[in-house]
Amino acid sequence: MENPTSDNVTDVSVLDDSDMGHIVVTAKGLRLTKADTSDRMAWVAHVQKIRDDQDTAAFAALFDHFAPRIKAFLMKSGASPDMADDCTQDVMATLWRKAHLFDPAKASVATWVFTIARNRRIDILRKQRRPEPEDLFWGPEHDPDQADVLALQQETEKLNAAIAALPEKQKVLIQKAYFGELSQSEIAAQTGLPLGTIKSRIRLALERLRHALG
Amino acid sequence: MSYHIKHHLTDDLLMGYSAGALPEAFNLVIATHISLCDECRARLGSFDALGGAVVDTVAPAPMSPGALSATLAMIAAHDNEIPPQTAPQTSSIFPAPLQAYVAGDLDDVAWRKVGGGVSQMLLNTSKDATVRLLKIPAGVAVPDHGHHGTELTLVLQGAFVDEHDRFAQGDIEIATKDTHHTPVAEEGMDCICLAATDAPLQFTGIIPRIAQRFTGI
After folding, report:
1. Which of A72, A160, A184 sits opposite B22 (nearest CB)?
2. CA of A115 to nearest chain B CA: how many angstroms apart?
3. How far apart are CA B79 and CA A101, in angstroms?
4. For residue A154, is it within any domain?
5. Do the chains contact at A178 and B16, CB–CB below 8 Å?
6. pLDDT of residue A177
7. What percent of chain B has pLDDT over 70?
């Protein structure tokens, strides 16, 4: 597992001291939090502690990191600050309730939290139900292989770095799409998005899960 | 459940679904296809990771004081509820998201005849698009039709062929306003599809067009 790499970042500005000391880099307007693989593995462990032990300290740590980001995401998506605050509390409560469904071989905690927040946004702002694919999850006795979990979390970090390296125009378009600012016809999936390797990882995890489910 | 699927979702649709930009009717067809297709499930996972990266990099907005304890209180208040277990993976031809909209399984579908032996059931979604189940008897053609917008057709049972290709269980056909085709259900088994349109289908013959006024197809 890699160590935090705060000494090799440039143009450092700390934006939010509730952020557990994470360093925020400002590069051409995109703020890249230097969450590394060890952070991601720690968040995975926190979700598992919530699932197994109803661990409120683990929940508080996830709340400190993710709640302000979900709130910002919802505000960017058009929610008022009060509505975004309430909605974020719902999202975090959902994280607690659905901890048994989280599969760290298929998604990072940030990705999973994003999907919960997005669904809440559709529910609240568009007043629509959100059909979701049938859940596929390891039964109560199983967890995915730790090596697969580590590989996926590392792949997430590589993806984030690759996105940070995209041309500014393309990054803005991706943000707009995920903040819900683009219509269906305005979303033409960008060519050259670096999604191939993480997709292959998830595919592998699905094959293992299908095999385990028999 | 996972079929041998040849026709998949496009990146545009997967990104639109991941970003939450599509009408509910389309979301239902996509969620149903992904329930049957691990390839598209993995591709969706990669687009969701893009959303995760956006959440990761947004400048945080501080929560209101007391938000954490309020959330913990909310969790505690629901603590004695039975944790929601996920619906078991079904062996039905209707995956879980579709069953939620039908409020049941294949046997619970309230089929209505729309002419030519074809039956349908409209499912209730937001009005920006429509989604219906279609049952086409084996060997029967759906009248030639063009589309004003986009039409997604997912095969749940049987297969259909048109001038361009063959679509079997789990396959998804994506038709645009330029697609004029005559799907015919293959012999052997009734073809059951889930079809979403963001504009009404346009039948090109005069008789079907009159029928359309009455049937709402």
Report:
1. A184
2. 7
3. 17
4. yes
5. no
6. 94
7. 82
Mean pLDDT of chain A: 85
Q: Residue A6: inside a domain, yes or no?
A: no
- pLDDT the model gives residue B168: 96
pLDDT tens readout for residues B16-41: 999 999 999 999 999 999 999 999 99
Q: Name every chain A residue with its beta carbon within 8 A of the beta carbon of B58.
A: 31, 69, 72-73, 76
Is the domain defined by B1-217 classed in CATH 3.40.50.1010?
no
Domain extent at residue A108: 36-213
Residue A198 and residue B3: Cα distance in Å, rounded?
23
What phi, psi does A212 have (nearest 5°)? -65, -35
Q: What single DSSP character describes residue B137?
A: -
Q: In this complex, do B60 and A164 lie within 8 Å of one another by their Cβ atoms?
A: no
Q: Is residue A173 part of a domain?
A: yes
The enclosing domain of A82 has a CATH number of 1.10.1740.10
- Domains of chain A: total: 1
Q: Chain B closest CA to A169's CA: distance in Å?
A: 14
| DSSP string over A66-101 | HHHHHHHHHHHTT--HHHHHHHHHHHHHHHHHTGGG
Tell me the DSSP string of chain A: -PPP-GGG--SEE---TTSTT--EEEETTEEEE---HHHHHHHHHHHHHHHHH--HHHHHHHHHHHHHHHHHHHHHTT--HHHHHHHHHHHHHHHHHTGGG--TTT--HHHHHHHHHHHHHHHHHS------PPP----TT----HHHHHHHHHHHHHHHHHHHTS-HHHHHHHHHHHTT-S-GGG--PPTT-S-HHHHHHHHHHHHHHHHHH-
pLDDT for A3 equals 42
Per-residue pLDDT reduced to its tens digit, A88-136: 999 999 999 999 999 999 999 999 999 999 999 999 888 889 999 998 8
> How much is the average pLDDT of B126-132?
91
On whether any CB of chain B is under 8 Å from the CB of A170, the answer is: no
Burial of residue B83 (CB within 10 Å: 0-12, 13-18, 19+) is exposed
Nearest CA in chain A to B15: A189
**How sure is the predictor about B64, in pLDDT bands with cuts at 50, 70 and 90?**
very high
Q: Where are the domains of chain B?
A: 1-217
Judge whether residue A55 has pLDDT over 70: yes
Contacts of A19 in chain B (CB under 8 A): 60
Tens digit of pLDDT for each residue in A151-201? 999 999 999 999 999 999 999 999 999 999 988 888 877 777 899 999 999
